[in-house]
C-alpha cells in the first residue's frame, strides 16, 4: 500500500504575474501567515475582554474593546488578502491561529477594568513589536507594498496601545 503525503497547505504557491520572485513571495507569505494567526488570536482576546469586563468603567471599556475587535477583524481580511495577492494561501482557521500565534492565552481570571486593560496592553505591545519588525523585513525583501500594509496596521496599533495604557497611568508613574 502506498501513501501519498500531501504538501502542507502553507507551502502552496499559485502562479501570478506579479513582479516579485518566488523566493520573496514565499518569505513574505510565511511572515503574513504568522501575522494572520496573531491578529485572529488578538481579535478573539479583545472580544473576550468585551464580554467579561466588570466594574465602574464597564460601559466605556465594553465599547472600547468591541471597537478594537472590529478594527482587528478588518486587519485580518487585509493581511489574508495580501497573502492571496502574492499567490499564497491564507491559513485562517481557529486551530491554525491557536497553534501559530505569537501571543499568550488570555488571562481568564481577569475581572475588573484595569485587569482587562493591562492584559490587552501587554498583548498589543507584543503584536506592535511583531508589526514593526515586519515593516523592516518586508522592506528589506523588496516588497514595499506589504511593508506599507504593516506600517498602516502598526500606526493604528500604537495608537490603540496609547488608548489602553492611558487607563493605567497614575501621577506617581510620571518620571
Ligand atoms: Fe457585543
Task: Sum up the structure in keywords.
binds fe (ii) ion
Question: How does the SSE layout of this entry go?
Answer:
Layout: H1 22-52, H2 58-85, H3 94-100, H4 113-140, H5 144-166
The structure holds fe (ii) ion (FE2).
Describe the structure.
- The protein has helices at residues 22-52, 58-85, 94-100, 113-140, 144-166.
- Helices cover 67% and strands 0% of the residues.
- The chain is elongated.
- Residues 1-7 have low confidence and may be disordered.
- The longest helix has 31 residues, at 22-52.
- It contains five helices and no strands.
- Helix 1 packs antiparallel against helix 2 and helix 2 packs antiparallel against helix 5 (144-166).
- With 175 residues, it is an all-alpha fold.
- It has one domain (19-169): Ferritin, core subunit, four-helix bundle (Ferritin, Up-down Bundle).
- It binds fe (ii) ion.
Short description:
67% of the residues lie in helices and 0% in strands. It is built from five helices and no strands. It starts with 21 loop residues before the first helix and ends in a 9-residue tail after the last helix.
Distance between the termini: 71 Å
Tell me the name of the CATH class: Mainly Alpha
* Name given to the CATH homologous superfamily: Ferritin, core subunit, four-helix bundle
Kindly estimate the percentage of residues that lie in beta strands according to DSSP. Answer: under 5%
Query: What value does the average pLDDT take?
Result: 94
CATH topology: Ferritin
Shape: elongated
The total tally of domains equals 1
Bound molecules: fe (ii) ion
Give the % helix: 55-70%
CATH architecture, by name, is: Up-down Bundle
Total beta strand runs: 0
Rounded to an integer in angstroms, the radius of gyration calculated over CA atoms is: 18 Å
Poorly predicted runs are: 1-7
> What string, H for helix and E for strand, traces the elements in order?
HHHHH
* Structural class based on helices, strands and sheet pairing: mainly alpha
Helical stretch count?
Answer: 5
Largest sheet: none
